[in-house]
Amino acid sequence: MSDYQWPDPATRPLLGKMIxxxxxxxxxxxxxxxxxxxxxxxxxxxxxxxxxxxHARISSIDTSAAEKMAGVxxxxxxxxxxxxxxxxxxxVVAVAAVDEPTAEDAIRAIKIEYEVLPHFVSDxxxxxxxxxxxxxxxxxxxxxxxxxxxxxxQVIAAIKQNGISFHPDExxxxxxxxxxxxxKVVEGLRTAKYSEAPPMSRSPYKKxxxxxxxxxxKAFTAAATVSEGLYGASCITHCCLETHGMAxxxxxxxxxxxxxxxxxxxHCSTQNLSGIAPxxxxxxxxxxxxxxVMQQYVGxxxxxxxxxxxxxxxxxxxxxxxxxxxxKIMLERDAEQEVAGMRPSAFARVKIAADKNGKxxxxxxxxxxxxxIGGGGTPPLPYIFEIPNQRKQNxxxxxxxxxxxxxxxxxxxxxAVITMGAIEDLAAKMNIDPLDFITRxxxxxxPRASIYRDELPIAxxxxxxxxxxxxxxxxxAGPVKxxxxxxxxxxxxxxxxxxxxxxxxxxxxxxxxMATQDLGTGxxxxxxxxxxxxxxxxxxxxxLLIGDSRYPVSGGSGGSTTSGGVTSSTRRAxxxxxxxxxxxxxxxxxxxxxxxxxxxxxxxxxxxxxxSLSWKDACAKLGAMPMTVRGKNPDKSKPPxxxxxxxxxxxxxxxxxxxxxxxxxxxxxxxxxDCGLVVDVKTAESQxxxxxxxxxxxxxxxxKILDPVTGRMLNPNMExxxxxxxxxxxxxxxxxxxxxxxxxxxxxxxxxxxxVSPGAAIxxxxxxxxxxxxxxxxxxxxxxxxxxxxxxx
Amino acid sequence: xxxxxxxxxxxHSGLTRRDFMKISGVGVAVPLLVGPTVxxxxxxDVAVFGPGKAPIALMVNGKKLTAELEPRxxxxxxxxDNFNLTGAKRVCDRGTCGACTVLxxxxxxxxCSVLAIDAQGKxxxxxxxxxxxxxxxxxxxxxxxxxxxxxxxxxxxxxxATTHFLQQNANPTADDIRRGLSGNxxxxxxxxxxxxxxxxxxxxxxx
Lengths: 793, 207
Fold this sequence. Notes:
heterodimer, A: 793 residues, Aldehyde Oxidoreductase, domain 4, 30 strands, globular, B: elongated
């Protein structure tokens, strides 16, 4: 058994340094080719006709005029007459034509009649008296709970109590376990009693049973201070700069015999390269093995690009109808904003209490929110702090808009805004500095408490918290008020399954193949760092091939699982390959294989470095044939060794609020973040920096606004769906936790955690500045002024 | 074109009735050029293109490129779809985000908001021609050094904008940067790196 463990700091030529991303030059020179840029000869432009109504039934479709138009090559009906449409912008018909203008004209020539049905798009506070839903748990409910990291005991209890309305077969159970579902939960599913799902309830509100822990009523009565408040965050979109889309072609036309291997070639903008073919195969009725999926670069995903989606399937169908010619469908910006991904809203009325020493004793929350037609996410409340006495209830609101998609750290940013806001308000009521208040309560912060204990003083130092914090309400003269706020966050992030093939050629060249993707997180860079570090060769000498489904299967990039996954399998492959090479080289160096090391592009005897061979000469000992080693991560049922789960982070914000205009400006933000062993400090810092900026953006500007009259999104563009710009970000300071206590935890992903806290920290800073709580994100000027005037909801 | 009262010129040119009303003194259509219909407006001959395809010639990166394009095609789409110059990206497609930034006679413009037909006779410079072959300009190299990119989709637009910005502001202040580079959006959040690139311009590290 090889010793895979990460090397000591003293023997890490590349790990943990500041290294520029390897695909930086190709990106900054504009040469990187994205799916949107795929432009083969004979490419046809695909377009989608979308339903303009938020709820309707298709009465008739007439595509005859479009089909007759010159330049139109294929028309595909996606939803037939009779189909019920549940959100505006849903796909109805797709066309392919010689160019985009022709495709647009063809879309306009299609006549569709709808029976318009009543819609509901409000996520305002539900009425007081709604019956709790107690029906069986659907597959969607179950997967939603898993995605949202509902504690295993809670999931098991719910399955036992309510039964399930689906039949999980053995394959489903096996897949679930492999994807990380706890074996006890899988067993719960296996033994659950089945019952028929009740007919769709006409109420948009789906209420969970109240969950109670401890004795909340008694605790509230006995508490020294009780604080009540309203908190939350509106729906936002993913707003990927490269819109969703796919290009499909059947290289051998409609003759399968003429297509050895690949019948269908797709280029897909995705964060799930290895997972696309199975999803395309089923609707097209072809074997997944005959589909090749490619993608070198992707212009953002943030959780919204795991599926080929209906437009992707349509591109393959259109291509087939058009004799196999390539058809590319990239969403227009308005469709991207309206249907291709949103983060659920979450709001809550919270009651929170502490004893006279400022120790949290009780929590009560009534939360609600929408995640589109499927209901909503359930924010994990209270966040971070295991308050001993609690009662909570959540109401998911089904609205006529496309279903939510995972948005970086699903449900955590909302939970942070609600919980950290309530804690800050309670601390203010008790005249305690929130930094002090949180520190006093860290024993409730679970397994990450010691991490927060390390991080809080560092963050306070970087922010100048002690010098600059003031009690609630900036008492200085003038209309611009300044304040500080903070928040904590956590996330899992254990590495996913990620196979790779590492080949050492007799001429010394090394290549790695892995069907993963780099969303701009630095995945390419860290894979190469890990391999080069283990083999003792320069990074330039490792060739990395990703972005092709023909390479070994690697997991989707979701839930911060990629960094841990790709680095641990690469490390395993590199260590195994190195050891096999040592065995071939040892006789020439008159040593035992275990006495050798690979460093500075040589293979040498550890105790006598003068006995060495250059890397090239060492590899020549392989003989005529290259050597390929498969890197494979251990099964999820085994404890991880090179990766880990559960990070902690602290963020602080310094804001100025103009009380005359309601405009909030971020002066400075500080992020102190743990992610175990940092493989590349440079790209890790960029990831945290980027999360702070994305956080400022959703805290202050972003909101998916739905028109109650038409049910349509009012701002499906980028001028009224506003992102933060370079002028909006203030000073940003990032500190990565490294060294003892952190490195030995192994590699943990970083995509979700740092994006959780910015909204909460900024919201708290605004409350500290102006002396009142602005309940909901985004903290728009209108909402700030409402709160100042005492008119907040 | 169903307007019975429209003159012949309109039937050929595809002018709508409202367009027609704006043009005074429409006279006899005499084709002066190959392709467009010509109408007389305000006493002058005016070439009217479309709605069909018209021959279009663009001077891109020092080369004359030609294509048959409908007048509604934007410069961005012509560059990307017809000439395979895909460095400029289509993101918002309505002049907000700057991902499609190119230089038109040396000035940065949103290529999604310029019609290809209107860009004729102007010098168009895209990111592809800023550096020779596989080489890197100092600005591009600074984007790498300061890690001013993540997914990279906004990056070419930012590189073009920053290159022009530093030509105009060799010694930029933080305020100059806030103003001068606020015409481009990034979703991953790379502004801190871009700010560092622009500030490095101040010390002569980038030009």
